[in-house]
Amino acid sequence: MAERFPSPGATDGCDFSGTVVGVGIDAAQSNKFRLGDRVFGAVHGSNPIDHQSGSFAEYVVVDAGFLFHTPSNISNETAAGIGGTGLGTLGLALFKSLALRGRPDKPVDNGDFVLVYGGATSVGTMAIQLLKLSGYRPIATCSPKNFDLVRSYGADNVFDYSAPDVAESIKAYTKNTLNYALDIITEVKTMKHCYGAIGRAGGKYTCLEKYPEHLHTRKTVTPDLVMGISILGKRIALDHGYGSDENLELREFGVEWYVTLQQLIGEGKLRPHPIKVLPGGFQGILDGLSLLKSRTISAQKLVVEIAEA
Predict the structure, then answer these.
(1) pLDDT of 307
(2) 275-286 burial, b if ≥16 CB within 10 A, otherwise e?
(3) Which residues of the chain are under the pLDDT cut of 70?
């Protein structure tokens, strides 16, 4: 985000975990969090209108409505790997954008197929679990080396994203009935594959990045972009079509969604994505960013310990 949306003076980073060292007046009145509580969540990093908002820091200021208690059986490193960015994004993507009726707390019976394009990513494995809990039949794409991993998170079937006929294979498996596609990768070829996999009747395509309009090739498919940080309800001052105004309805949805997620996490119903812990404090962050740029990390989420919690 820092490269696409440079914000000089702002703090980068979104997901975090740590220990509560101070509680604001409103949060104190709710009595939800106390000094010493272990917590995790996410903030809007690289924020041009709030330079203090970012998780690449020793101290993070967080809205108490978007903060999770860390269960006693989960380490701080694992909690940071869960974070809140992906979970918040999925709340919007699955239940606002795709408008799925089933929810983890109110699952449907015999739910439809839902394609998760990018199943081995940290967002992908969480999406698969949330879909399964909601009564749907998640199918996913990933590299063949990660097939077993993605199946272990609940995917009904997995397809090789690099296969030239991946869309046709998905269409054959779903018998031309796929209505929902969540494109976590959002590149030219992934959008084409998702559009090709969606069935004869059309459906909904939700992505996490801006897409070129010329790739919207089917009138029966409704495309939509989801910005995960919009769940906070605050104004997003990013350009290139990523910005949005304050939205209190989204904030209300987000707070309720976090309550649902906290229950799922506490009950052990959401299995964390594999993590790779990097040493070195702030230097470790730079090392991690270099690893991400090199595209050598697969099916792991990088976590850096900045300070002892």
Answers:
(1) 78
(2) beebeeeeebbe
(3) 1-3, 308-309
Q: What is the pLDDT of residue 3?
A: 63
Task: Please list, residue by residue across 71-96, b when 16 or more beta carbons sit within 10 angstroms of its beta carbon and e when fewer do.
Answer: eeebbbbbbbbbbbbbbbbbbbbbbb
Q: How many CA atoms lie within 13 A of 303 on its CB side?
A: 25
- Three-class SS of 241-289: CCCECCCHHHHHHHHHHHHHHHHHHHCCCCCCCCEEEECCCHHHHHHHH
Cβ–Cβ < 8 Å for 265, 71: yes
**pLDDT digit string, tens, across residues 115-162:** 999 999 999 999 999 999 999 999 999 999 999 999 999 999 999 999
Integer CA distances (angstroms), 225 to 119, 154, 167, in order: 18, 25, 21
**Which pTM does this prediction carry?**
0.95
Q: What is the pLDDT of residue 5?
A: 75
In this structure, are strands 157-160 and 137-142 parallel, antiparallel, or unpaired? parallel
Q: Can you tell me the distance from the alpha carbon of 148 to that of 141, in angstroms, rounded to the nearest whole number?
A: 12
Give the H or E element holding residue 294.
Answer: helix 282-294
Question: What's the rounded Cα separation, in Å, for the pair 90 and 220?
Answer: 23
Per DSSP, helices labelled H in 16-82 are: 25-30, 76-82
Measured CA to CA, the distance from residue 85 to residue 15 in angstroms comes to 6
Domains of the chain: 15-83+244-304 (3.90.180.10), 87-226 (3.40.50.720)
Q: What is the mean pLDDT of the chain?
A: 96
The DSSP result for 181-242, as a single string, is EEESS--HHHHHHHHHHS-TT-EEEEESS---GGG---TTEEEEE--GGGGG-S-B--TTTT
Pairing, β 67-69 against β 38-42: antiparallel
